[in-house]
Design brief:
Belongs to the ABC transporter superfamily. The chain is α/β, with parallel strands linked by helices. The protein has a domain at 93-167. Helices cover 37% and strands 28% of the residues. It has nine helices and ten strands. The chain has helices at 52-59, 82-85, 106-117, 122-135, 152-164, 182-199, 210-216, 234-240, 244-254, and strands spanning 3-17, 23-37, 41-45, 67-72, 75-76, 89-93, 170-174, 202-206, 219-224, 227-233. The structure holds adenosine-5'-triphosphate (ATP). Adenosine-5'-triphosphate binds at residues 14, 16, 26, 28, 46, 48-54.
Length: 255
């Protein structure tokens, strides 16, 4: 399996104002390294403040690391060239459905994504929108719908359509499934697994939902206060975590 994403020794420190004249440093990530192969799922788990969101922000180019490297298919990713790779890595965050513009029809929203990032002509864009909606179990007519006309489950599919219409190789799901009710989550998870099988899409799943991790992640990285503790095959980490912290996190979630 080819390596899609390689993260090497990533570090990020924030400076926080702690008084009128003083600043405090917060180490958000310290020497984080991992790899993710095409068609695989890596879960990043950790409590609030462990650095999960910072990692996601560095990966999608919202923020810059202090040091370390992000390689995509062997090529270093540079924040200044973000537009070159924003169709390769796509991002869905918590409450993605709420981030849809309520005044814009879904077809128009998807068309905007294509106009911004591709050179497809109007006819080709229309075709691509139709194909993407179908892939996500939505209908042609849904192009003419506004967000409020969809059910919760359909909205989640719309959010996925927006992320997947550019045929990315990697989808980062930052707590994107956490807020869903269990039956809806199961539907979306099955859809994600199906898409992965068909297209070789890789997922980086940032979550605290350890049951979900056990169900869908090939590999698991446990973050604690910006440091990587256990990292490896999910079943192996669940059974033989080296660090107390990881064991407690795993046990509290599955017992
Ligand atoms: N913009 C910022 N300025 C200062 N400190 C920050 C900033 N963003 C994050 N931090 C700090 O960096 C650390 C890691 O934060 P981060 O949001 O990455 O954690 P997290 O694991 O994603 O938490 P959560 O699950 O609550 O989102 C925390 O101590 C946080 O307070």
């Amino acid at each position: 399996m080819n390596t899609l994403l390689e993260v090497r020794e990533l570090c990020k420190t924030y400076r926080k104002q702690s008084g009128w004249f003083s600043q405090r440093s917060v180490i958000a990530l310290q020497n984080i390294s991992f790899t993710l192969a095409e068609g695989k799922t890596l879960a990043i788990v950790g409590e609030t403040g462990s650095g999960k969101s910072t990692l996601a922000k560095l990966l999608v180019g919202i923020e810059k690391p202090d040091s370390g490297e992000i390689l995509l298919a062997g090529q270093p990713v540079q924040i200044s060239h973000y537009r070159q790779y924003n169709h390769v890595i796509r991002f869905i965050f918590q409450d993605a459905a709420k981030s849809l513009n309520p005044h814009q029809k879904i077809g128009q929203m998807l068309d905007d994504v294509l106009r911004f990032s591709t050179v497809l002509d109007p006819q080709q864009r229309k075709q691509k929108i139709r194909q993407t909606l179908k892939q996500l179990g939505l209908l042609d007519e849904h192009s003419e719908y506004y967000p409020h006309m969809f059910s919760g489950g359909q909205l989640q599919r719309v959010a996925l359509a927006r992320a997947l219409i550019l045929d990315p190789k990697l989808l980062i799901l930052d707590e994107a499934l956490t807020a869903l009710d269990p039956s809806l989550r199961a539907q979306i998870v099955n859809l994600l697994l199906e898409l992965q099988q068909k297209s070789g899409l890789a997922y980086l799943l940032i979550t605290n939902h350890l049951r979900l991790v056990r169900h869908i992640a090939d590999d698991l990285l446990v973050l604690h206060q910006g440091t990587a503790l256990d990292y490896g095959n999910t079943a192996h980490v669940f059974a033989h975590a080296e660090h107390d912290y990881s064991r407690k996190l795993i046990n509290s979630a599955i017992t």
